[in-house]
Each structure stands twice: as structure tokens, then as C-alpha cells.
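Obj.: predict assembly geometry.
Materials: sequence records (below).
Method: joint structure prediction, all chains together.
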Amino acid sequence: MPNVLEITGLAKRSRQEGNEASSSGLLFSEVTATIKEPERIALLGVSGQGKSTLLRILAKLDTADNGSIALYGTASDGADPRRWRMRMGYVAQLPVMLPGSVEFNLRTVSRLHGTEYDRKLAERLMGELGLENLALSKPATELSGGEKQRLSLARSLMLRPDVLLLDEITASLDRGSKERVERLLLRWHQEEGTAMIWVTHDLEQARQTCGRVWFMGEGTLLEDTPADAFFRAPATELASAYLRTPAGRELEHS
Amino acid sequence: MTYTALSFTLLFVIATILVSVWQKLGLERDIALGTIRAAVQLLAVGYVLQFVFEADHPAFLVLIIACMIGVASWNAGKRGRGMPGIVWRIAMALTATEAVLMSLFLGLHMIKATPQYIIPLSGMTIGSGMIVAGLFIGHLKREAETVRGEIETLLSLGATAKQAIHDCLKRAVKFSMIPTIDGMKTVGLVQLPGMMTGMIVAGADPVEAVRYQILIVFSFTCSAALMSMLLSALIYRLWFTADLRIRE
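Observations (raw C-alpha cells):
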């Protein structure tokens, strides 16, 4: 059985020269990691480390300047971007609703790929996300920020991807909705065996929902450790500073 | 019209230049240049047409139409700066549109198969196609920029390039056809079209002139639709990289 995901020596140059993130002109380099089993991974680090860029590269929505990625043994180089993206479900930080109704958005995957619309699954997801009372005919662009974020997650789950790339998907949710999303994703993981790479600034969330932590700092993937070990005693000084200063972290995040 | 009468038309230009000097608009140079260019271009075209009509050889006809398509493509292509291969794609769409319309005109005997009919009607078809192409490309560029997020969302859900940009294309096709359709609604009420006016001045029966104008107006609508649809099929891929990302 090949590994779920293999990332080898991935590097990305900064978009603009003279970026304060690094003097070398690199956003990150030498990012190497392997996901052997379908795990839930929290991708942590202060802002500007390239966490979102890493997710976008994994989804083939951005390109790496060096390195390689393999998904269940299939190299990303030369892979059909459509098939790849269907297996690497990317949920963006800012949810974009397609012009049309809530149902139109839920049906996107079936429409794009000519597959049958799994109404039952859609209804179940909407219910578990607390959106069961949302009229399916309502224009999706009129939803609140939090509703959009949850609908966007449901829309991507309809793909049933092998790996879920989640970019701060609970950032604009209230506590109750946030917990619903967490519960749904935990159950989804158990039932579907989906691996998840979850960018979050909510350490409580990372601790409760993820089994592993990838910590980005100093322009690379600094730590790759089981979550309990990371939160008990991180290996690097940078990570312990990161864990000690929630206020600073919040500040950088906002 | 005699050359003496024609030279009096310069009075209009002189009046305009005087206004420019008096109001300090600083347009004298441009007006002078525009006057000379218009006069030289039109007189040259007049002599070229006279020659082609007398020669009555299909090679000249093809050459003139090819020139029209070339200039129109280059001109409309300016709207798509930075998009490699845009000019020859416009040229292909214009050529196809021109071919379809001329086949209909000639095949159904709507016009006589002589340069006197083919050249002016080709000029109008290609000219209106050029305007449609410019509008279409300009609008598609703005549209694709505005809804970049939607396009990327669709891509991230595994859409093809065509699926991802389909809505944008639809809106741009619609937008580029609106002026033609609006023009059809008010023609004759607001403005008397140039061709019809010309025919009437030259002594043609107004009703005969109107018949040709109707032909022009209807065929413009058809050419606008053909042009924008052909162009959308030919250029949508330019918005994407080979590995199906949005081109920066």
C-alpha cells in the first residue's frame, strides 16, 4: 500500500522580492513530509509562513519552484489537474459562492462531473452543519459569512476526496457552528478514511481534532510530530514560543 | 460632386480649427492630421475600388477582403494586449463570419456577385465584427478578473477550463451583442444609417435603400452572434495555463 501523501523537498519563492519573511527570496524550502495512514494533521505556524500557499500547491492551484508531491503513489507532475483536484479537496479560507441557489452550489460536483446528485448525503451534511433550516432555493450569495463557509465545506465534501485541504474553515464561525464542523469532520474521517491537512490558528481545535502537527517556521516544515507530544513539549524553541504567546499569535493572525 | 465643391468641405475643418485655437483646446494638430488622413485614405480607397471594379478579377476581391480582416483583427487585438495569439484568433473568427454571411448573401441571391456589392457589404460585416470582438474581449477580461474567485472555486472542484469560465463567456457574449441589438431597435428613428443615406444622396429610391439597410441590420445581428460565439470558443483557453490554473 503506497503512502497517502509524500512531499519531498518542496520549495516556493516569495511572490515579491524583498519579502520580510526570508532574506533568501524563498517563502519556504525543503518541506518534506510523509502521510503514511489517512491522518488528521494540523498545519500550524505564525502568519506569513506559507501555510495557505502549501495547501494551494498541494491542490495544484499554485506551482512549487522545486520538489515533488505524490498522492497514493501518483506523482503530481504530469497528473491530470482535474483528477488530482477531485482527490485533493481544497476548501478555501474565503468561501466563494457560485451565483445560484444553495442547492445549485450543492449540486456543483454532480453537475461538473456528470455524476448523480447524492441528495441524501447533501441533506445529511447540511443537517450536521446546522444548515437544515436553510431554504435550498435561497440565493447562495445572500448567505451570512458563516453559512457560506459551512456550505462551501459541504460542497467540497460532495467530491468525497482522498485528502481534505482545509484552510481556516472555522475562522468566521460561532462556537456552536465550529463544534458542529469539528464533529462532522471527525466522523467523516472515521467513515470515509479521508486524510486531512487543516490550517488553523485555534490551538484548542488542533489539539482536539488532529492526531499530528506540522509546524511551519524559519522557512520550512520545522516539526512533524504527534499532536500530544507537540503540545506537551515541542522540539524547537520557535514552536514553544509560538505555544506560549497566544496573544502574539492572535495579533499576527488578525 | 465636383472637386471644387469637395474643396469647400475644408471650410468645416477650418471652422473647427478656429474654434480649437479660440478655446485653446490644443487640438489643431490632431484635427489637421485627421483631415489629411481621412481625405487621403478615402480618396485612395475610391481609386482602388474603381480599379477593382474595372478589373473585375476575384484575386483583387480576395486581397481587399484579406486586408480588411487583417486591419480589423489587429485593431480589435489591441484590446487583448498581453494575450499571445489573440490577433490570429480574431482573424479566424472574422474570416469564418465573413464566409458564412457571404455564402448566405450570394447563395440566396440577396446580392449580385459583383465587387460593387461584395466589397461594401464585406467591409460592413468585418467592421461590425471588429467592434463586437473588441467589446467581447474587453468585457471578458474584466469579467474574468472580477469573478476570479468563482473560477478558482470551480477549478478546485475539478472543473475543466471551459466549465470554469462558462458563465463569464456567456455574460461577455451577451454584453458584446447588446449594442447591435439596441441599434436594431432604434435604427431609422434616431439615426439614418450611413449606407442608406449614401444611397439616397446618390439618387437611389429610398425604399430600395431601406431594403438594403434591412439586409445590413439583420446580418449584423447574425454576425455579432457568430463572431462572439466563435471567438469565445477560440480564446477561452488563453485564460488558463497548461496545467489548468488561472494565468496570472
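Conclusions so far: Residues 57-239 of chain B form one domain.
To do: check interface contacts against the pulldown list.
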